[in-house]
Write a structure and sequence with these properties.
Blueprint lengths: L10 E5 L6 H13 L4 H6 L3 E4 L1 H4 L8 H17 L5 E6 L9 H18 L2 E6 L7 H10 L2 E4 L2 E4 L15 H13 L1
Parallel strand pairs: 1-2, 1-3, 3-4
Antiparallel strand pairs: 5-6
Helix pairs in contact: 4-5, 5-6, 6-7
Length: about 180
């Protein structure tokens, strides 16, 4: 898990996977506290939220990308109205592995979400576990994100393709090579 220091008056809206349990909430809170963030104060004033996938991605019982995008749009508007500079979202995307059609629909979601981030005061960090995600998902995800990271450094993503709208078949060795190239930069 990577936690970065907050932007002044920014709003953190953190989303974690479905294995989130009380001990994980405590761990997240501890890491933030160790980084000098007053977690209790931020929770009280609405500057930090930790939500489950059910409350973020599956509000109607199943994953509906447009509903989630609407949720982020609404959260962004509320953050700005409440005096925050922007909304920052951090999402562990492993939850898609346990949902019907989640893997197929997540790429359409990511493609649509980049429009929200490009036109509003919101930014997001999507966390995809390279060991758990199918290579086709990783390949498509690389196509939908203009910035990518392997490890601790962020880079302009040479594999970004604004036209990616859906999951497609991927050559496993090509995806592995892309991931290795990102790791070398």
């Amino acid at each position: 898990m990577s936690v970065h220091s907050p932007v002044r008056r920014g709003l953190f809206h953190s989303v974690w996977n479905k294995s989130l349990r009380v001990r994980r909430v405590v761990a997240v809170r501890l890491v933030l506290h160790e980084r000098g963030i007053d977690v209790d104060s931020r929770l009280r004033r609405g500057a930090l939220r930790i939500l489950s996938p059910r409350k973020t991605y599956q509000r109607s019982g199943s994953f509906e990308p447009s509903q989630t995008i609407d949720l982020y749009g609404e959260a962004t508007r509320h953050a700005v109205q409440d005096g925050f500079a922007a909304l920052r979202a951090v999402a562990d995307m492993s939850w898609v592995l346990g949902t019907a059609d989640g893997v197929e629909r997540v790429i359409a979601y990511e493609a649509a979400l980049k429009t929200l981030f490009a036109t509003s005061r919101a930014t997001g960090l999507c966390l995809y576990n390279r060991k758990r995600m199918p290579l086709a998902v990783l390949d498509a995800v690389l196509g939908t994100h203009p910035i990518a990271s392997l490890g601790r450094a962020y880079h302009a993503n040479p594999f970004y393709d604004a036209g990616v709208q859906a999951l497609s078949q991927a050559d496993g060795s090509a995806v592995t090579a892309k991931l290795q190239l990102l790791n070398l930069q």
